[in-house]
Predict the structure.
Amino acid sequence: MNTIARIEIDWPSLGLTVTADLDDRNAQLAQALLDVLPYRSLQGHALVAGYYLYHVTPVHSVFHLPTPHRADRRTLPDGTLFCSRLQHFGIKYGTLTEPMPATPIGQVDPADLDTLAEAGRAAWDSVYSSKKPVIAEVRHAGRPGGHNLPRLTATDPIADQLIADVHTETTRAWLEPPTELLDLHDGRIRSGAGSYGTTMTTMLFVNGESRPLGYSVYGGLIKAASEQLPMDALRHMARILAGTPGEFLAYCGLETLGHFTARLLACLDRLDNRDDFIAVMAHMALYVHCLGGWNLQLFPWHLGEHLRTQPEPR
């Protein structure tokens, strides 16, 4: 493999930085990441897969770029970098258990693997127990950092205004938890969602609905559009797939997402331009992924501390 560029991943609040080389195993993915640098994002940690860091990356094209090299993450060395169609920039720093084919784009410098593991442990503590957010910054090696969320455009003015509004709200929520999620996790839900006054069930359902809405619905629609599915079929599938989860999440407290969903459904007939369709869906996907990241950060995972995997009987 050949090196494309060197980058740095920095966690300012932790005082930790690692350097990595991007390579040409999935060259277009690596270049797409380079094109949006520098940026900052809420640092997440895998909750079921093992020792794995990830954050949402603002690469709109990740859903449809070619990925010629795929491999089982479990078999790749610690420090491997990944960019996935879940719109995640991920780093393996230890044993993984999930057999997921993934798209590697680079490798952390071997000299920085201990620092990477330290960052991984701190990120796990952030997500699982302390709830103090950790922000990651990704930048060109040796260059200044910074942050910017790219904005796509649409030729249709109604669609472009929706993109602008979703982009503004995504920017607002990117590095600070959105008020609606804070309210939900504090038990303030205007609709009264939650049978017998419980909030845990509502928080759980928000997590269960928001992740596939971003990954499967909006990500799937973008992928289908890039593969030239007819526009009538794309609009029809958008109505079928996006409406119900958007309405349900609004009932659970994510009212801004509900308003954006309603506007999206109302302007679908105007989206006869494939690029417009992809642009709108890409911004909806990024917004939902942003909400999903914060929901995972705020969720009280520590309440399950007594629930532990058991050794298999001999």
User: Anything to note?
Assistant: The mean pLDDT is 96.
